[in-house]
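Researcher: Here's a chain I'd like modeled. Treat it as a single chain, no partners, no ligands.
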Amino acid sequence: MTDNTSPPGWYQDPTGQGDGRYWNGSTWTEAVDRGGVTVNVPIDPNQALAPPVPGTQVSIPASPAAVQPVGGGSTSSGSAIGAIIGLLVVVVIAVVIFMVVTNDSSDSPTPPGTDAPPATEEPATDPPADDG
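Model: Modeled as a single isolated chain. Structure tokens:
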């Protein structure tokens, strides 16, 4: 008697939604490989029980336990967001430092308690002539 069941493993995705799909030995799972990234993609229940075509097994290093839902958050996007926030913080700090360094103190108002107006030069006048 011939056993027509395929062993568990990665096979070419019969739905065409990825490079490979995981067959658990009795049904197709939602685990799909797309360019080396494993994601969950639902499969039509009518296609889920059709066994893999012999000779279509593919080598995918990730196990189906390490899958991420389609459109779900990933650590790479979280790292990218963290990098963007870090860059924004650095830019804000640089702008503040630039403003402090380039601040001209002559533009600042007179400090409190110094109400005297700035000194002005009086025009020179000749001393009165001595008629003597």
